[in-house]
Amino acid sequence: MQPHDFWQELHAPGSFDPMEERADFHVAELPDGRQLRLPIRVLADGEHALASLIINQASFTVLEALAAALAARIATHNIDVVAGLPTLGLTLAAAVARALGHARYVPLGTSRKFWYRAELSVPLSSITTPNQEKRLYIDPRMLPLLEGKRVALIDDVISSGASIVSGLSLLTSCGIEPAVIGAAMLQSERWRDRVDIDGKQWSERIVGVFSTPILERSENGCWRRPN
């Protein structure tokens, strides 16, 4: 597959064996059994790899399917408003809000406008941009939409947990405690300890459409799920 071919098509249930070793893609399954091929990103040690999802490069069909599936999973929490994490989480958050029947959502941001306030920001780090110093902001004009409401905090992928921790830190500093935290993909289990580091069991509130493991290199050079 060419790089631009990934994330463009959903396949019927059973199209691929999810346990088969492969050289270039990993198979993820949606709750309804449909399958999505994800590219494999090799980690620094050369012996492990992760499946990748970049949702703002996905087809509208894939985006809408992931948003609908995530909306169905968080609907039981009676969400009043969806808040999205930048950058890729904004694409999914907007689609999830629409799938829930909401008229709008609240985007968090990394670009400081002149009317933003320093106290309504926290440092932001990301596994995909590890060397960039950024801050996460909330527009003070958006706070009334979140205060006293049942909020869903949405990101596209939860991997190391760094972005989610920043989002939780910002919202809780504003007196807002998300009822649920959602993502299209939960990438391995590395994020659990990090999101629970302050003693709050945030991991219990996290839901995803599908999960992917850390892959291991096999003897023939392909990638497989761990035993």
What does this structure look like?
There is one protein chain. By secondary structure, this protein is of the alpha/beta class. The protein has one domain: Rossmann fold (3-Layer(aba) Sandwich), CATH 3.40.50. Helix content is 21%, strand content 27%. Strands 1, 2, 3, 4, 12 and 13 form a six-stranded antiparallel β-sheet that branches. Strands 6-5-9-10-11 form a five-stranded parallel β-sheet, with helices on both faces. α1 (60-74) packs across α2 (88-99). The longest helix has 15 residues, at 60-74. The radius of gyration is 18 Å and the shape is globular.
Which descriptors would you attach to this protein?
single chain, 227 residues, alpha/beta, Rossmann fold, 6-stranded antiparallel sheet, 5-stranded parallel sheet, 5 helices, globular
Q: Any idea what the CATH architecture is?
A: 3-Layer(aba) Sandwich
- Please tell me what the overall shape is: globular
SSE order = EEEEHEHEEEHEHEHEEE
Report mean pLDDT, rounded to a whole number: 94
Q: What is the number of domains?
A: 1
Question: How far is it from the N-terminal to the C-terminal residue, by CA?
Answer: 27 Å
InterPro entries: PRTase-like, PRTase_dom
GO molecular function, one term: glycosyltransferase activity
Keywords: Glycosyltransferase, Transferase
Organism: Rhizobium tropici
